[in-house]
Structures
1.
Amino acid sequence: MTFTCKSILAGTALAFALTTSALAARTDLTLAIQLEPPHLDPTAGAAGAIDDVTYANIFQGLTRITSNGAVAASLAESWRISDDGLVYTFKLHDGVLFHDGTALDAGDVVFSYDRARAEGSTNAQTALFSAIESVEAVDDLTVKVTLSHPQGSFLYNMGWGDAVIVAPESADTNKEKPIGTGPFKFDSWAKGSAVTLVKNPDYWGEPVALDKAVFRVISDPAAATAALLAGDIQAFPAFPAPEAVIQFENDPRFTVVIGSTEGETILSTNNGKPPFDDVRVRQAIAHALDRQAIIDGAMFGFGTPIGTHFAPHNPAYVELVELYPYDPAKSKELLAEAGYPDGFEATLKLPPPTYARRGGEIIAAQLREVGINLEIIPVEWAQWLDQVFKAKDYDLTIVSHTEPNDIGIYVRDDYYFDYHSDELKQVMAELDVTADEDKRSELLRKAQEIISADAVNGFLFELPKIGIWDAKLQGLWHNMPIQADDLTDAYWAD
Amino acid sequence: MLSYALRRSLIVLITLVAASAIVFAVLEIVPGDPARLMLGMNATEDAVQALRQQMGLDQSVAVRYVAWIGGMLTGDFGRSYTYAVPVIDLVRERLVVSLPLAAMALVLSTAIAIPVGVFSAARRGTAADTGVMAATQLGIAIPNFWFAILLVYLFAITLRLVPAGGFPGWQGGVWPALSALILPAIALALPQAAILSRVTRSALLDVLGEDYIRTARAKGLPSGLVLRRHALRNALIPVLTILGLQFSFLLAGTIIIENVFYLPGLGRLVFQAITQRDLIVVESVVVLLVATVVIVNFLVDLAYAWADPRLRRR
């Protein structure tokens, strides 16, 4: 009898436990990323996967970039900018702890910025810190940053993943065991498989809804589709298989969000090499490109056509797609004018991403229509960086420039485009010292117009962010204004 | 026998040294700078140089080769450029996936192939034999990754019996780990089984033509017993040779299957290391694989010599 009583009691308790857990919303999430991060220190590498896992989840900066691309406060509670735009005084939040229990103070900020801009620094974006002249701790929670010249984008720059605040005690081991100030703590990393984060119980800000987040690495597009359909993962924020999107759109179990990124996909052109040094040849190429056909063929229709090197969702974007519309006849005319009535031969080096490999075939066919015969040379990333990017040994290539607001690359003298424009340099120099938003937008518009008119590169499309996740999952980013899978606001709806 | 073994070990050693030199040289020639790859397009040349120095890439080729070989002889395989952890740890982590996977695939393919081969040989020329041979032909022709995708759609997506991929690790229990390896093992085993069953069949048919089989039959043994006791045992020698080769092949040749099932195995490690120009990882893992293959072959050679004294003098 006792036995029965006990069983009934146990059974009831179990049933009760089951019902309550069924009522409470889920608090774990397994999401997938396509590439595995090489390590987890965002201040020592350019791999986007590092930021996918760590940005705003583990590491935080003084400022941050929000889901709509704006700058917001993060570790800095507030700041004051001197009238000459040279001195930024940041006030830090009180009571911020690193994951190892040490407190954040102004000294950590000084350490982080000095480390990033020091000689021999291996920060991948040292240019972000180039305007800084000195960083001083005024008191425990106040930092004074002095610039050598006013820089309108300074607060934005400090919001990058490469500018997060790290502690001197853990800086050297962050690659393996990242210690930040964010709402999630690093838990474990099964190399080649998954990185696990858990909720930080001592987080200084609003606590997050998720207790655990697992970032799984799935690179194969077919495997990505299968993993979502089988329920192994609940989200793929940057889904790699545009061809499979339609089956998710028709499935009520999933949410599909097509957002934008900062990835300008372009037909990069070696402006220093004949015949591409002739603006008429570059214009001819621009007229020969049918952007919609490229987007349809290479991206299954996902992607926004661009006419310049700027993200269409940016308020300062100028629509320049129609400056050189698709017009093969006009293209041939321009080629004849430039002295190539019968066209010419050139090479097209294609890195591994599908947008490049698929897009390359279509572009080669389109240029053949006007007499330009391209030899397609597939290359690996490492080769691409060495031959194309570093040695400028190329005619044409296709690549997506995913850094946000990177129009400044057009004034770099040794950049692989080999493009030089004094007019653009003036505009960009003025932009660098301008803080007024309206004035900045105006200068940015001017810069876009200059490179578009010069047809520096073939401007193709803005890379989409195809997000697919469980229909009950809320709070993931729709757009990707910066490389991140910020889970701060993610939660399961009942 | 001993001098034969010594001579063979010398050849093994020379093969390993030659392989290490070739692997190292090839990776030196292949374009691509690991430091630039890690820091990306926006990094300044100074930052890239600083990282090269940190990784020891500024030293000369000869110095790095000697340091690498010297390290390997003392069991130190170096540190991965990208992961910044000892290579040997990476290999160990990956082997707990790849080794059981290869073993499962090997057991499965043998379990399928030998009965099928025997069945087919015993019914030579009949419709059943023709059917089996056609099926094995198909098994060889079907690419294993495509077969893998079909398996995933049926067992993971439609029936939801096993996960579509990934590996939970052994610390979470044996069953979850094994269930993650079942589909990949089947996908790997099937083409191997097809090859092996054809080898078994033809080896068995060769043996069945021998005089001692006729004698066995003549003294009135039932045909099933002749097949099992006299024919199969003798026919197993070429089958075992193929099996030995298949194991090294399975260990190294899982790159595609590991991608389809996103398993963190050795094949994925090498593939990833090549694209990221993690030279030290590629070099060390390739040399390890070469060593496995060479040693397995060495053991097979020794087994032959033991079986056939004529080979010892060669």
Note: Residues 2-23 of chain A form the longest helix (22 residues).
2.
Amino acid sequence: MAEKQPPTIVEGATTGDVEDEVPVAKSAEDRKAAAALSSLDTPRDDEAAGGKDVDQEAVKKAMDRLAGTGTANGTSTKKEEENKPVKKVVKVDQADVALLIEELELSKIKATDLLKSHDGKVEEALRAYITPAA
Amino acid sequence: MPQVLSAKEQGLFRTVVRNYEDKQYKKGIKAADQILKKNPKHGDTLAMKALIMNSQGKTDEAFALAKVALQCDMKSHVCWHVYGLLYRAVKNFEEAIKAYKFALRLEPDSQQIQRDLALLQVQMRDYQGYLNSRRAMLTARPSARQSWTALAVAHHLNGNLSEAEGVLTSYEETLKNPPSKTDFENSEAVMYKNSLIAEQGDFQKALDHLESAGKHTLDRLAYYELRATYLTKLGRTEEATKAYRALIDRNSEYKMYYDGLIEAMGISEDKAAKKQLFDEYAEKYPRCDAARRLPLDFLEGDEFKEAADQYINRMLDKGVPSTFANLKHLYSSSFKKDTLPALVQQYIDSGKSEANDEPKRSGDTSKGASAAFYFLAQHYNYYRSRDLDKAMEFVEKAIELEPNSVDFHMTQARIWKHYGNSQKASEIMEKARTLDTRDRHINTKAAKYQLRDNEGDAALKTMGLFTRAETVGGPLADLHDMQCVWYLTEDGESYARQGKIGLALKRFTSIYNIFDVWQEDQFDFHSFSLRKGQIRAYIDMMRWEDQLREHTFYSRAALSAVDVYLKLHDKPLSNGTNGNSDANGDDAAERKKAAKKARKEAQKAEREAIAKKNEPNKATKEVEADPKKKDDDPDGAKLAATTEPMNDAMKFLTPLLQFSPKSIDVQTAGFEVYMRRKKYVLALKCLLAAAALDKEHSKVHQQIVRFKVAIDSEFESSESKISPKTKEVITSEFNLLPASTSLTKFNDDYLASHKDCARRTLSALSVRKLISPDAAPTCEKDVAAVLKLSAITVEEAQEALTLLRSWNSSEVDAFKSSAAQKWPKATIFE
């Protein structure tokens, strides 16, 4: 135990504890008070975490990268989302949806999805739904 | 336009907020009112006041006030935030999320609102939303490790493992100095990352990471275990063997290590090698049980006999009471089932002479003899090898040797239970309890047996010996507080047996609510676990919570509740004129009593309230605590008064079907409910699922025929609302009946092929009565005749009796007397 305790450790509680209790309490603080309080918080955070262990430059770079992947990822998921509807441009008879809601007690969204995934054929949808999973 | 506060009032507003935080609600309200006197339409103050009122238990008023606050100041994020908090408090998380989102739109930089939103999103399993929130939170505070870890967790939960790993790596790269070795948070984060790598299936990378970054992790055991697992997966036999051997040296009783070692050595099929391995460890660790017990699982024939003999001698010499419990898993093999008692008998025979020869061991051997008798008593009480008279004989011998043994009396009580004599069983269990009044285990057993004998008051008294004395509301309240699920289940089932529907439903609903509480309990951990850095445990918890209602505690209580609701549907309480059932009469009286009691209590409460008003300074605390806790339906009268029992049953049934679809009891219960609700497609779904599990099951057989009969009449009926499409699907998917055979023939075939099984015979007979009502008298005679089947059990006879009763059969009395003759010790046929 010769090692020095990292600066983030506070006697009796982790910094996390301290940080956390403050926000819970200020749940409905008005804007100015909130700003004042959080400006009290932030410098200490940066000192604690950023002072020794964290390379601020590296953090910036990492954040940039993250933003990059984030958007890339965002678009890719968007693409997937776009793909799915493209595959499933299926005309759905509202009467069939109503039938599924009535018979299977599904929500409207789920019933529509089920119907779409069976090309709008209500019999197929019913059949698939009641077949026991292997 | 929102009103603007003066400087002085802004100070006051801050006081309000502080008072709320410090839970000084009265002061807070006072200060808020002071502001409102001058600025009656100040939205933020109104909102804060609403929040404080909610904490005082005035939920409805709080909601009303919060709405006023919003009308005064639509653009205030405080008002929206409070609105969200109120919804959160009443557990309407979806509305709360909407309110938070609106607040966040007005105040995009508020970390507090963002944080509250994120916690709700993960609680509601909106992983995509959670991911976005966490990303925003990281942008706001990129230097805190927590922010990064949280984002990784969000990716992980959202199913994107490599992204999660990448986030953690990004953070690691920002560190200038390596974290200290004693940094617990770092150590856990490293192990979390390791689990992410392994979960992606790249064991080489996981091993490399473990050996480099995880080398000095503080969780040493996890390091050793993971290393052994990875080495095995990678086929590095020699190192894996070594790793597992090291683990066994750490803990020689853990079966998983032996399994791992055997797998690593590649000797799963080689019995001789396995035996040798276990022998080696048995020798190395003379006190080790696992190395001696485990070989019995795979050994056969003489080898088994020899090993089992050694094992039994060793255990009985020490008088280990759990010897049978430890060995009964072997009883699925009939050879082992026959061998084990023979060995014990041998032990008894030889032990006696030994005791004479070597008086020095007399203490030990006497222990051995009683332990051996005890083993045999349990053996003959076990369902695979039941012979209750013999069991009783042996347990009496054991008790003779040790008259004060709690264990022996416990088994004796259990034998009485199997005789079908719950009264005697309860008596003996109570006797066992008095032998050691400070033992909680025997205390709960005694209470359970009292419940089985429908002695609810006595059971509660027994339990009361161990509950906290000062709990308001007595032992029952404490058992609820302590979430004592087994007691509530047994109590509910006991009430159900006695026909006290309301109380039974009350108990089952309590259990349902306890599971809700467990679901809500995770809320605190979304932030707590991150703060403490224990991510692996957190992920485990999330997975567990997702499957919470799989637990048998839930399915048992829920099935019982559904059963009660079915009975309620078939025989509504309000027209208790069904004649034959005395339970109904009881219940009516019970309900009258309950209503009277409730009236009295209400009057009493009123008087007390008046009394309290007269002394305003006294007991204000109690008043504040009370409104949240008060139960307005202590006897479940409201639950039993339901007009739509089938809809109420759905509350219990839906999670059952979702989480325990492989249980045949669940599927058959689902069928019953859906049939009564005329949801034929869903009933068919349950039926098909049940048939896929076991087509010959007695209930499934009955349900197949009943379904056929029901849909035939439904399809012919002119009032049928079933659409042609549905009709076609039902007809084509209902493939459980052979097309060419008639129902009668189908049923007769079933009966013929299961004529030795009482339960299936009963099922076929009730089907016969259904499809040809003319045959009723012969059916009743045939039901009575199941008593002559050699394999019939007490429980099956009881079912037969219930069936006869439900038919109002004239055979009931004759059946009862011949059953009582067949099982003279049973009380259930009296």
Note: Residues 582-614 of chain B form the longest helix (33 residues).
